[in-house]
Amino acid sequence: MASIAYFGPQGTFSEQAALAANRPDHTLVPEATVPEALAAVRHGHADLACVPVENSVEGAVSATMDALAVDEPLVAIAEIVLPVRFSLLAKPGTELGDITSVASHPHALAQVQGWLAKHLSHATQLAATSTAAAAVGVLDGQCGAAITAPVAADHYDLEVLETGIADVDDAVTRFLLLQRPGALPAPTGSDRTSIVAVAAYQRTGVLAEMLTELALRGINLSRIESRPMKGRLGEYRFYLDFDGHVAEQRIADALAALHRRCHEVRFLGSYPKADGTPTLAGTDNADADYAAAASWVTKVQQGRTG
Amino acid sequence: MASIAYFGPQGTFSEQAALAANRPDHTLVPEATVPEALAAVRHGHADLACVPVENSVEGAVSATMDALAVDEPLVAIAEIVLPVRFSLLAKPGTELGDITSVASHPHALAQVQGWLAKHLSHATQLAATSTAAAAVGVLDGQCGAAITAPVAADHYDLEVLETGIADVDDAVTRFLLLQRPGALPAPTGSDRTSIVAVAAYQRTGVLAEMLTELALRGINLSRIESRPMKGRLGEYRFYLDFDGHVAEQRIADALAALHRRCHEVRFLGSYPKADGTPTLAGTDNADADYAAAASWVTKVQQGRTG
């Protein structure tokens, strides 16, 4: 049976995202770390991996991005965006006033300090290796309550004392569903393409040139991050997300231009946008425009300039 | 006496950075939060504020940057870069094997999971509101040891069991020393300028245009971050750090160009780079080049084109 490896254990936000990916024909398989979830797909033990790439509350996103930038390439076929809202789980019959200790992943605890100060100010805060591990800690009697992903309540025999816990109302975390390189998802008219590019950062303007290559083709950037590369002084990695699908000529053309300008470009996938907003394309950049232009240039090269 | 407000309590990395700023004529005053440290300077209760702006291990950097982007402007006069290396503090006479619980700020715990798994795998991990609060927790008997900034050992009557703890060898955290707008630090030949710009993100290419304005003037970008703005759909904030001082004509000229292109530009300071590397300037961008060009254009405007 087909399977999705996710950053486990059972009951984490990554499992919640894997469920939201809505592939009922796939078994969900927890892995201990993000690199192990990626390795499961790279080595063929799993078909897909579901890992956090933005605002994770259970681990460092930079480590995920760095893991995608090296080793065997993987490509995203979907993105999943989840609200950062936690549940408070405790043993059945527990009252809020009974709780003297509360556990979660350190990143998750950091995101609910306001709520804890208001509702559980006297509880000791315990750091767990994941939000789900915190739930296990409650079952084992190591702590009185756990701050978890909502899905944790489906796995552990605990009561939901509170749900929708969030200091910041509109915080979201973003995941990618990745596979080994193969057939790409078909364009939907609401697509995003992700790449990681390595370029000489000390050369003034290289990033301006890269973004101009995108802008000239009407490509709308939705995210940019720069990171210095360890052990490669003067080189930077740029993680870029932009509107469009590599099946579109303007996107293919832009990627070719970046390939000429950068030391290295890795394609991380073209996949439907979670929010379903239409791809912005600018004008004069349709496939028909590219075809007409290419056909004209061919004529010119053949001496048929008329 | 002049004072520096920092993100406290005593013994945090922010205090370590404030000490490293090397202003022995300034008293260091702890504040409970980053916004309170900034408010102390905005309201004139302190002369300077020392706050984390990159890879903080004791709070969210994004909150700091957002706090600098609004309210009364503050400008940086120095940056301080510290290695992310922790000390393990416990009551005198404690052996590593005796420790059954270890506390720190959630972000700090997240950064030493490898070390803890190797050396204190059986210790319960407790989340504290800061690394320094964890040290206080040891004194109070709430936990057996604390993962702290090195400077915490100077404040609390605890023993340093281990120092230089780091899962990643070359991780650093960066702080800015901020004041109310006033005289800027003189250019040193190794300067950085920080700004936050608000622009319409949906307009394809606006960031390419902004970076091209910098590149055309030989300005080397050292950091870029994009963040969507809450409640202002379609607008993004860009945090940009680049080489150079606003006293240089090419930097002044670039800032003026960004001011024309963006909805809003806030100057966050021109200050000496912590690493002391010379400012990269490209060619044909010296103040003399600007002066000669301006003088020529004036002549043209006066009809003296010869």
Please tell me about this protein's structure.
The structure is a homodimer of 306-residue chains. In chain A, helix 7 (206-216) packs antiparallel against helix 8 (249-261). Among the domains of chain A are: 86-165, Periplasmic binding protein-like II (D-Maltodextrin-Binding Protein, domain 2); 191-281, Alpha-Beta Plaits (2-Layer Sandwich), CATH 3.30.70. With 306 residues, chain A is of the alpha/beta class. Helix content of chain A is 28%, strand content 31%. Chain A contains nine helices and 14 strands. The first copy, chain A, has a five-stranded mixed beta sheet, with helices on both faces. Chain A has a five-stranded mixed beta sheet with strand order 7-6-8-5-9. Chain A has helices spanning 13-20, 34-42, 61-69, 106-111, 113-119, 131-139, 206-216, 249-261, 287-301, and strands at 3-7, 27-31, 48-54, 75-83, 86-90, 101-104, 124-127, 145-148, 159-165, 172-179, 191-200, 221-228, 235-243, 264-272. The A-B interface holds A 60, 106-107, 109-110, 113, 124-129, 142, 170, 201-202, 204-205, 207-209, 211-212, 214-216, 218-221, 223-226, 230, 280, 282 and B 60, 106-107, 109-110, 113, 124-129, 142, 170, 201-202, 204-205, 207-209, 211-212, 214-216, 218-221, 223-226, 230, 280, 282. Strand 7 of chain A pairs antiparallel with strand 7 of chain B.
